Amino acid sequence: MANIKSAKKRVLIERERKVKNNSVKSEIKTYIKKFKAELAEDIAKAEETYKMIASKLDSAARENIIHQNSANRKKAHFAKLLDNAKNNNK
């Protein structure tokens, strides 16, 4: 444990941030699982879930929870999955 007062404060702040960051990451993972499940059943619901995923990824990237390139890569991956599912159902 740190001895200096400011270092102790940084430790506490980092703990709080870690909890928030893990919560956001967990929420994104939950939406991803939901998206993959809906992709097989109902494409209209999957489209709505994709919009939520894109929004959550963008906000996480803005807050530096995940890297911007990682967010863009994931959005592109899920958009491709959605397009493939649309084309296969036609």
Number of strands: 0
Tally of helical runs? 3
The dominant shape is elongated
Q: DSSP strand (E) fraction?
A: under 5%
Order of helices and strands: HHH
Structural class: mainly alpha
Account of the protein in words:
The structure is a single chain. This protein is mostly helical. Helices cover 88% and strands 0% of the residues. Helix 2 runs antiparallel to helix 3. The protein is elongated and about 65 Å long.
Structure described in brief:
The chain is an all-alpha fold.
Annotate the secondary structure layout.
Blueprint: H1 5-41, H2 43-62, H3 68-89
Features:
mainly alpha, 3 helices, 90 residues
